[in-house]
UniProtKB/TrEMBL annotation:
Name this protein carries in UniProt: Glycerol-3-phosphate acyltransferase 3
A GO CC term attached to the entry: endoplasmic reticulum membrane
Transmembrane domains' residue ranges: 90-111
Molecular-function GO term, any one: glycerol-3-phosphate O-acyltransferase activity
Gene Ontology annotations of biological process type: phospholipid biosynthetic process; triglyceride biosynthetic process
Keywords: Acyltransferase, Endoplasmic reticulum, Lipid biosynthesis, Lipid metabolism, Membrane, Phospholipid biosynthesis, Phospholipid metabolism, Transferase, Transmembrane, Transmembrane helix
Family membership: Belongs to the 1-acyl-sn-glycerol-3-phosphate acyltransferase family.
Domain of life: Eukaryota
PANTHER family for this protein: GLYCEROL-3-PHOSPHATE ACYLTRANSFERASE 3, PHOSPHOLIPID ACYLTRANSFERASE
Length: 390
């Protein structure tokens, strides 16, 4: 269609255009002008070979300063905190610094690690035994009360096992029963950080091993929502079970991490819309860790859970802030995606995090071909429209 229009109209000599100087907003000068506007600024009619330079420049920008994949690696620190994980190149800068680092290694591995491991073992054992015993009681207020006591007590022991120092803000906005608590996701310990201050009904896939033992024990005392591997792929079944839980105002609020994967402590990425299709009141929570005392981010594509927990338990401490935000409900005429984006923006602003539109699934998968094709279609439509207008 473009070629036909070009032949009918004839070739016109393009007029030189002045390029707008972009504003520096990173390690490179990146211009965030949309494709349609920038190419239209270069010429007002048809395809020109100069359009190629626009796409080349965008490609170079993405390579030099990729705003997506850098969110899946540990956060860069202004100064080294004497942990091996943060910068291995700093260990031997000077003799004095090396001596201090060695002393820190001895303290963390020979004193803190055994103590923390002991506390973690006590907390996990208490969780399994306590919830199993409470699960034998008949359903009622007594069982619910004892279940909350067991969950809170064991969670607080586990937080002590991490030398956790947590500051909770705006407690008047804490999630209420029958609601849905959504938070940004940095680490598997996010759930422990939140249950240290209140009880929640967890949502997730059934696991084996020690995690499976904990799941089977806790579900007897508390209405957690665990799915089999085959069920978790059935979106309608998941939505149905979660909606039934939310409709019962006597049940604990559901805790969901809509990003679906761990993102480093700098950003919030796309929220999956499923959590916002259930209905009910959404209680946003922002979690922000202080990396100077320990990096809580879990790079699951690089470290398994055992290696990660070892790194966490040999850090100096886990220090973070948690902000409970005012409840949010879906507005009239607002779809699930718009609602999810509005909640994500609120969490990003409160936690001082960068808001990104990308799917966290890019942590393990390549960009879908449909995304590339969408850009190609937009460019094609723009050429046809410009040609037809001319």
């Amino acid at each position: 269609q473009w070629a036909t229009i070009r032949i009918q109209k004839g070739v016109k000599k393009p007029q030189p255009q002045m390029l707008k100087t972009p504003t520096a907003n990173g390690i490179i000068e990146r211009d965030e002008t949309p494709m349609e506007k920038e190419i239209a600024r270069l010429h007002r009619v048809d395809f020109e070979f100069s359009d190629i330079f626009y796409f080349c420049r965008k490609g170079f920008e993405a390579i030099v300063e990729d705003e997506v994949t850098q969110r899946f690696s540990s956060e860069e620190l202004v100064s080294w905190n004497l942990l091996t994980r943060t910068n291995v190149n700093f260990h031997y800068i000077s003799l004095r610094l090396t001596v201090v680092w060695v002393i820190g290694v001895i303290v963390r591995y020979c004193f803190l690690l055994p103590l923390r491991f002991t506390l973690a073992a006590i907390g996990i054992t208490s969780m399994i035994v306590g919830t199993t015993m409470v699960g034998q009681l008949p359903n009622g207020s007594v069982k619910n009360y004892l279940s909350e006591v067991v969950h809170l007590t064991c969670s607080r022991i586990l937080v002590r096992a991490l030398s956790g120092t947590i500051r909770y803000h705006n407690k008047e906005n804490k999630p209420q029963k029958g609601g849905i608590c959504v938070a940004n996701h940095t680490s598997p310990i996010d759930a422990i950080i939140l249950t240290n201050d209140g009880c929640y009904a967890m949502v997730g896939q059934v696991h084996g091993g020690l995690m499976g033992v904990i799941q089977r024990a806790t579900v007897k005392a508390c209405p957690h929502v665990w799915f089999e591997r085959s069920e978790i792929k059935d979106r309608h079944l998941v939505t149905k079970r979660l909606r039934e839980h939310v409709m019962d105002k006597s049940k604990l609020p559901i805790l969901i991490f809509p990003e679906g994967t761990c993102i480093n402590n700098t950003s919030v990425m796309m929220f999956k819309k499923g959590s916002f299709e259930i209905g009910g009141t959404i209680y946003p929570v922002a979690i922000k860790y202080d990396p100077q005392f320990g990096d809580a981010f879990w790079n699951s594509s690089k470290y398994n859970i055992v290696s990660y927990l070892l790194r966490i338990m040999t850090s100096w401490a886990i220090v973070c802030n948690v902000w409970y935000m005012p409840p949010m409900v879906r507005k009239e005429g607002e779809d699930a995606v718009q609602f999810a984006n509005r909640v994500k923006s609120a969490i990003a602003r409160q936690g001082g995090l960068t808001e990104l539109p990308w799917d966290g699934g890019l942590k393990r998968a390549k960009v879908k071909d449909t995304f590339k094709e969408e850009q190609q279609k937009n460019y094609s439509k723009m050429l046809v429209q410009n040609g037809s207008i001319g």
